[in-house]
Structures are given as structure tokens and as C-alpha cells.
Amino acid sequence: MVLGIDFGYYSIKAVVLNNGKIHALGEKQLVEDYAAFDPDKMETSHWVSAFQSLCESLSINPKKMDKVVTSISGSKVSIKPITTLEMEESELINTLTLEAKKHVPLDGSDPVIDYHILGQNPKEIDKVDLVMVATTQKIIKAHNLIVKDCNLKNPIFDSDPIALLNCYKYNYEVPKDDVDVLVNIGFLTTTILVYGKNQELFTREISTGGYHITSDIMKLKSLDYGSAEKNKLNEGIKIFDSNDENASSIQISQRNILSELSDEVRKTLRYYMKSKTGSSYNKFYISGGSSKMEGLTQFLNTSLNVEFQDLNPFNELSGSEDYKNPLSYIVSVGLALRS
Questions:
Q1: Three-state DSSP class for 98?
Q2: What are the residues whose beta carbons fall under 8 Å from the beta carbon of 267, sequence distance 6 or more?
Q3: Can you name the residues that pair with 128 across neighbouring β-strands?
């Protein structure tokens, strides 16, 4: 059995898979009272307590799992497709380490890299294509502290974007020549991932997520965080409607957070098309807990002139049920699917 754990900033999601069948899954919020919630003030003890409570409620023992996989947030890792000359491993690592320093967060610690060689470059026979994943020692240590305090032994460290990709590839047919677009609206960031069988992986993190939408509602309605979150869930994007009969349906100043998200997705898709010739967009998928905000998908469809469909993490998994919000399990399922 494989346990995939998504240590989010709002909640922890865990999924246990056994031979392609769901054995257990569940979610546990990090705190009980979100009135004065601030993700910057989350401490290791919050994740540890929530994880222990979640394991107890699911009747699972992490020590009895064949494999445990956790992930680091996409905003804290850099994922880059690279084409390079064939070389010895030690030389390749030195080359990638120098490349990683250009992309990882500047936090005063050295980069930590991993890579996967995809194969020979189709255009240049003396070069290979690979995907590099890089972060920093400081980020690894912070994540490892949570893992150790949760008494998890020898877990595999992955990244949110790679987990998103694994979940998508398992559940859906990948286009051969064109590309699919995945938009995963998380709590603090939104991941945009573009992928096709014959196209290199492209991914970008946008610093807008469900937390920022709730924060805007707090300012708009003069509410605490917990109340604003409830209003967001109950009313959806209608929460931004103006009460002024002489104003437009959604005030421009109040709509900025949604427009900002839409604009960043649009910029990303335009950039991709300009930089990658010979491919076109096939399907558009949306996921993440915040993606189920009432009216948000329709808003993005209209503003981007596309048609998003839900990225269901249980599309090809047996034993799944009608879960309250399956789109929030994208990362945890992707982690549990890691072979």
C-alpha cells in the first residue's frame, strides 16, 4: 500500500492506494478556529497534530505502508525541461546545480536537485532531454522537520506539479501531438501545467489561490477569515456583486482578484503558444479545492474563451465514492500513484 500525503496550509489530505484501488482517504483542517487564521503563522505542531488525528480517523498506520510519499509546494520548487550534451553523471550534476541557482528561491542555502532523463533529443543526436526539479536545503529541512515529527520513516519527497501530472496521466488519455492544459487552484498558489506526449513539460506557479480570494472577501465585507471563507463557499463569486444599483454587477475594484487570476492564466497560455510552435491546445482541466467556488469555472470559461472540465482524480481508480470535493485530492492521489 502507498500513502500519499498533501501537507497543505489549510488542511492535510491523505490517500492510501492498494493495487490501483482506494483503501482510505480523508482530510483534516490544520486548526479548529479560522477566525484569526494566518498561513504565515502555521507551525510544525499544526501539521503533526492534524496528521495524527487524520490517521486515527482513517484507522491507518503509516509505519505499515509499503511506501510513503509527500510533496513540496510548487511555489518552492523549480521544474525545468533541459536539453544538454551527454555527459558523465558527476559532470551533469554540476551543470544542473549551476542551472538550478538561476531558478530556486534565494534563501541563503544551496540548491538541491533531482532529474529524470527523458531520452535522446530528436533533433540533436549528441544531446539528451531531461526534466530538472530543484529546491533549496532550507526548504528541504523545513519539510523534513514536519515529516520527522509525524514519525514517517524514509518517505519519498515529490513536488506538487509532478503529483498533478501523475494524477492526470493515470486518469486521462494524453494527446499525441497537441497539449492539454491543467489549472490547479490551490490554497496559496495556482499551478498551470501544459503537457502532451510529444511536447516538453511546461509549468508555472501563480501567486494567487483560495486564500487570496478569501482575503479579498474579508476586506470587502469586513469579516474575519473564518466568516469570509464560509461566505465564499455559500455564495461563490456572487459575494463580489455590488449592492449599488448604479454600479456594474461586479465592481472592478472588488473583482480584481478573480481578474488577476484569469489574466495570469491568459498570459501564460499566450507565452506558451509564442514559445512552442507546432502545437495547439486540446483540452482544459481545472482542479484544486478552490476551483469549486460557485461560478469560478464559468467566470474563467467566459473570460478566457475556453471550456474547462473537472480533473477528476478518481476517474480510473476503483473503490471511489461520491466524495464531497474530489478535486481537492488531486495532489494526494498523484503522490499515492507514484511507482
A1: helix
A2: none
A3: 84, 120
pLDDT in tens, 78-137: 999 999 999 999 999 999 999 999 888 878 899 999 999 988 888 888 899 999 999 999
- What are the beta bridge partners of residue 79? 133
**What are 50's three cell numbers?**
492534524
Nearest to 260 by CA among 312, 300, 202, 302: 300
Q: List the one residue out of 167, 82, 78 whose CA is nearest residue 121.
A: 82
Residue with cell 469560478: 296
- Give the whole-angstrom CA distance, residue 260 versus residue 266: 10
Q: pLDDT per residue over 172-227, tens digit each?
A: 999 998 999 999 999 999 999 999 988 889 999 999 999 999 999 999 999 999 99
User: How far apart (Å, rounded) are the C-alpha atoms in residues 328 and 290?
Assistant: 8
Residue in 264, 255, 324 with CA at minimum distance from that of residue 289: 324
β-strands 179-185, 281-287: how paired? parallel
- Give the whole-angstrom CA distance, residue 285 versus residue 303: 15
Domains detected in the chain: 173-310 (3.30.420.40)
Cα dihedral across residues 219, 222, 226, 228: positive or negative: negative
Distance from the Cα of residue 77 to its chain's centroid: 11
For residues 183 and 193, what is the distance between their CA atoms, to the nearest angstrom? Answer: 7
Block residue for cell numbers 461566505: 231
Give the Cα separation of 177 and 162 in Å (integer): 21
Overall pTM surpassing 0.85 (yes/no): yes
| List of E strands, the chain | 2-7, 11-18, 21-29, 67-72, 78-85, 111-120, 127-136, 156-159, 179-185, 190-196, 199-206, 281-287, 308-310
